[in-house]
Amino acid sequence: MVEDFGFQIRDASDADRAALRALFHETERFYRQPLSRVDLRERVIDRLVQPGDLGCLVVYDGDRPVGYATYTIMVPPLKGAMFVKEVFVSEPARGARVGDALMRTLAARAAEHGCVRLDWTADEDNEGAQRFYSRLGSDQLTSKIYYRVEEADLEAFARGEKAIALPPPEEA
User: What is the pTM of this model?
Assistant: First the structure.
């Protein structure tokens, strides 16, 4: 467990299941997503609390869970790069430096693993997250384009029945 800015930050374990359920529920409300099925949420929590390819940090302020981050270490590069999928801070704890504590802990974890970088994304319309990440002093990349196939199209895409719509090539 790490103490940073007075918060306790630890790897998620079985003891954190109720905290993760509550934080995931709040995350879905924040992003205006339909609430996940309970069985799906439990499968995700199962993966996050077991050692493996995914990592999850949970932040507590005393006994109260106030945030979490999920991440994985990817290759190449051969030394590894940490990719952070989600950083979420509970609304009552925003502005209390929970995000700072999480990002510093993630950076330390990446360095411990010998990673060459720490990457994450922010939604284009989440100006608060963008201000936060800029304040941290991180570089904003514009050299990458993010691609996605949505859940409803995955099976058709896998069968080759649905192509991702690409913009027309630029004319010379």
Answer: 0.81
Q: What's the rounded Cα separation, in Å, for the pair 120 and 71?
A: 9
pLDDT in tens, 42-76: 888 888 888 877 899 999 999 999 999 999 999 88
Share the mean pLDDT of the chain: 88
Nearest alpha-carbon partner for 72 in 86, 87, 57, 83:
83
Question: Which of 114, 100, 1 is CA-nearest to residue 58?
Answer: 1
Residue 99 CA: distances (Å) to CA of 88, 114, 127, 166: 8, 22, 15, 36
What is each CA distance from 83 to 37, 57, 89, in whole angstroms? 26, 13, 18
Domain boundaries, the chain: 2-141
- The CATH code of the domain at 2-141 is 3.40.630.30
79 phi-psi bin (left φ>0, alpha ψ -120 to 50, beta other): alpha
